[in-house]
Design brief:
Blueprint (H helix, E strand, L loop, with lengths): L1 H8 L3 H27 L11 H6 L3 H7 L24 H17 L5 E3 L5 E3 L1 H11 L6 H14 L1 H7 L2 H38 L2 H7 L11 H19 L5 H31 L3 E3 L5 E2 L6 E3 H20 L5 H24 L11 H28 L1
């Protein structure tokens, strides 16, 4: 074959075109054989010689290296009648285009990604299915929890940035991973529902709240302190569940405490934000005197009713997701309202008073949700159990 190529090289321009055809065919057969062998190895047994394999074992670069004088030169030609053809592209380009198409068709069956005609890539369905099965590992693992949170946070980043600062998103990622590891996707969905509702009510009448000086800082975007203050009790319950403290009988109690803590916090957030936006009259919880909106320990009828509805809604989500039973959902609502009254009393009597400067909103939030979680567990153990038996 090398001698034939050398003879063609010494021929006229017409024969040079045939050389280009041979070169393109040689490359095509070589790549076709390699792709065919990788996708269908059973068709190419190693014990028998293959004519295509024999031809493909000598790369074209080796031929050109062995014969450096082998170059393609175009000779002057005055007769162009034989070259007048209706082809729109050069012949070598046609071979190259067909070669690329054939190679892409062969590799599409064995590749993990499928290349579309527009250049965009689509994940292999098998790979996507494996990722979904990994995220749904039962029981959840730390790896599946972190992976699931990363994907969800990446897709939900436009929503996250409306309610959280950058450092707040980092704290929320830790909370989400811990929640997924402790209580699986159902627990994560409960926290996501709490976040969406809480962020939505915080944005209501933001301009009015800012004008009155009662709006949350950073236009309602919560920082890491607020995230930790709102989830401390839930994180403790998740850790107790992960490490199996108390065994299987106590696992349901930790789950109940987890749901009750977020019911308590959502009720507190909704009642406060709705009261600031729509409350006609606010009263100090300890004396029932009329006080301005935003006063620590102040409550309103509108905000209180909205808080009750919010706790019922979140407890219902927990019940539908199988986190708690119907009777336990009622316990969560009851415990959240008792805890919120206690939080209002603490705010009215102690917050911003001499000797309690450390008692800021985040610290009060920790006390509030811890009280709601503990109350729910105690009511379930000493009231519901005795009533059932």
């Amino acid at each position: 074959m090398k001698q034939a190529i050398l003879k063609l090289h010494q021929s006229s321009w017409i024969k040079t075109k045939l050389l280009l055809i041979v070169v393109a065919s040689y490359d095509f057969l070589q790549i076709f054989y390699q792709n065919r062998k990788s996708s269908h190895p059973h068709c190419f047994p190693t014990t028998k010689s293959n004519p295509i394999k024999t031809m493909a074992t000598t790369p074209l670069t080796t031929i050109l290296t062995t014969h450096p004088s082998l170059t393609l030169r175009r000779r002057r030609c005055t007769n162009f009648s034989s070259f007048l053809r209706p082809a729109k592209k050069p012949l070598i380009c046609t071979f190259t285009s067909n070669l690329v198409k054939s190679s892409a068709m062969e590799s599409s069956f064995s590749s993990t990604r499928v290349q579309s005609s527009t250049g965009s890539s689509v994940p292999d369905p098998g790979l996507v299915q494996s990722a979904i099965q990994f995220a749904q590992s039962s029981p959840p693992t730390w790896q599946s929890a972190i992976f699931s949170n990363f994907v969800i946070f990446l897709l939900g980043s436009p929503i996250l940035v409306t309610g959280l600062s950058i450092s707040g998103i980092g704290a929320a990622f830790l909370l989400g991973s811990l929640t997924w590891r402790g209580f699986g996707p159902s627990g994560f969905l409960l926290v996501a529902t709490y976040f969406i509702i809480g962020t939505a009510v915080t944005k209501i009448k933001m301009a009015q709240k800012e004008a009155q000086g009662v709006a949350e800082k950073r236009k309602g975007r919560r920082g890491p302190g607020s995230v930790i203050g709102s989830s401390a009790a839930g994180c403790v319950c998740a850790l107790l569940s992960i490490y199996g403290v108390g065994g299987k009988p106590f696992s349901r109690l930790w789950e109940l405490g987890f749901v009750a803590s977020f019911c308590t916090k959502l009720s507190d957030t909704v009642s406060s934000e709705i009261g600031k936006a729509f409350g006609k009259t606010t009263y100090l919880v300890t004396t029932f005197k009329v006080v301005p909106r935003g006063t620590e320990g102040a409550v309103s009828v509108e905000g209180t009713l909205a808080g009750v509805v919010a706790s019922i809604l979140l407890a219902s989500v927990g019940c539908l997701m199988g986190e708690i039973k119907v009777a336990e959902a009622v316990i969560c609502v009851l415990a959240s309202q008792i805890a919120n009254v206690g939080e209002s009393v603490i705010g009215a009597e102690l917050q911003e008073k001499e000797g309690f400067k450390w008692l800021n909103n985040d610290a009060v939030n920790v006390i509030n949700i811890s009280l709601g979680s503990i109350l729910a567990i105690l009511i379930q153990q000493f009231v519901l159990q005795n009533w059932v038996t």
